Amino acid sequence: AHRRAREQERLSSLGMLAAGVAHEINNPMSYVKSNVNALLMDLRALQPLPPELREYVDDVLPATADGIRRVVAIVADLRRFARGDPGALEEYDLNEEIAVALRITRTQVQSRCEVEVTLADLPRLLGRPGQLAQVVVNLLMNAAQAMPDGGRIQLSTRMEADEAVLCVRDTGIGMTPEVQARLFQPFFTTKPAGEGTGMGLAVVHGIITSHQGHIHVESAPRNGTCFTVRLPRVPPLGLRLADLSDGPLTPPS
Ligand code: ADP
Ligand code: MG
Known about the structure:
8 helices; binds adenosine-5'-diphosphate; two-component regulatory system; histidine kinase; ATP binding; kinase
């Protein structure tokens, strides 16, 4: 429990750092992005195009634009990680958020693998529904990416005592203990550059702990992976009070 508290503290100061960095990067980046795009458009419109500029039009500028897109994606993930917009606590149905996540990931997930969904009746939970949908999206995307040659995802919910339990199981490549140990670290990825930012599970971890829940992984190389998320039906009072203090009770600054 002590280690978990330290881990949470580390991730929350990291969250503040992330918010600061994201903010600093965003403005110059949008400036660079629009200039590169404008330059590329102008060069493409140039008739005839001087041969020494061909490489810029075909390679250099498109590659630069790709790099910028990647930075912008990382910054967007950083922002989410930093929870710049936590959203209000509301009552929600976890099964509905799962349905939202399945719709969002339809092209990347359902087209590639079989998805078996088993949902139990759940009581309404208190939390930030949009964030929970994002958790499910990240787990589904990771599962699908772990199965390049197809496979099966089993997604289920159930109630255990006063906790909602969500399981996402895949038949993919699985993970070594070394990978499992670093899973939730921001920027940890085993995917080739351009495919993973390594922020997905860091975001998931932040969301689940801010809901006073737990996430747990079981996996073995070539033997698939199972993520289990536990969410208290009503998060402890502390979280609800912290949420209120962001609201109308805060004096205007
Ligand atoms: P990303 O997907 O961008 O790499 P994540 O934080 O979502 O970042 O995941 C971090 C790493 O954890 C992945 O690169 C991968 O090595 C591993 N991982 C996550 N989910 C799975 C899974 N379902 N099966 C196998 N490996 C996984
Ligand atoms: Mg991911």
